[in-house]
Design a protein that fits this description.
By secondary structure, this protein is mainly alpha-helical. The protein contains ten helices and three strands. Strands 1-2-3 form a three-stranded antiparallel sheet. α5 crosses α7 and α6 packs antiparallel against α7.
Length: 199
């Protein structure tokens, strides 16, 4: 097989033609580093290696781009990468980000737990469920959640004051109770705070 043409495309990719036919798009930098020039003879093994290197490079670049916007858990980052590359490349990219200290489940869990408890006003149980969905193990989730001081009744008051101004209205009251239960609050805490508003 022979590389008969390489044409630049968007997003750092190049279209590679083999024996006159379009074969695939590969990372331009990978092609340059591996001296894959027009006219070069290439066998199946070399092509496979070129594809793997291209995928790995693209996965790492995508990982860096994703974590530049916000922190991610390892599981979440891997799932996002797998939308654009194979599982192997995604796994290697996540491992590399972890080696560089750019991805840490511990750090992510601590920050996300604070957001869930203090900003979104969730209970520890609801927050633990959300953390598990992001791939955080139970032990880590429990540890970071325990470190955050939370007054559930203050949180309930904050939710009511932000979203349910006319809490005396029965319809709004029912809606508020349903929303608070979805956030993980128990009926005893909800009832105690509602009683304050009745008085």
């Amino acid at each position: 097989m022979q590389i008969t043409a390489i044409e630049p495309r968007r997003k750092g990719l190049s279209a590679v033609y083999i024996d006159g036919e379009f074969a695939m798009k590969l990372d331009t930098q990978t092609l340059l580093e591996n001296r894959a020039d027009v006219g070069k003879e290439i066998n199946d093994e070399e092509l496979k290696e070129l594809i793997e290197r291209s995928n790995e490079r693209r996965a790492k670049e995508k990982a860096l781009w994703l974590i530049s916007y916000r922190s991610h858990s390892k599981k979440e980052l891997k799932e996002k990468l797998q939308r654009t590359c194979d599982a192997d490349a995604a796994e290697k990219a996540v491992e590399r980000m972890e080696e560089l200290g750019l991805v840490s489940d511990e750090r992510f869990a601590a920050a996300y737990a604070r957001k869930l408890l203090l900003e979104k006003k969730m209970t520890r149980r609801a927050a633990a469920f959300e953390l598990s969905r992001k791939g955080i193990d139970r032990e880590t989730a429990d540890r970071v959640l325990e470190e955050i001081e939370v007054d559930y009744r203050d949180n309930i008051r904050a939710v009511i004051e932000k979203k349910y101004h006319n809490i005396q209205d029965e319809k709004i009251r029912r809606r508020a109770v349903a929303a608070l239960q979805r956030l993980g609050y128990g009926w005893d805490d909800i009832k105690a705070v509602l009683k304050e508003y009745s008085n």
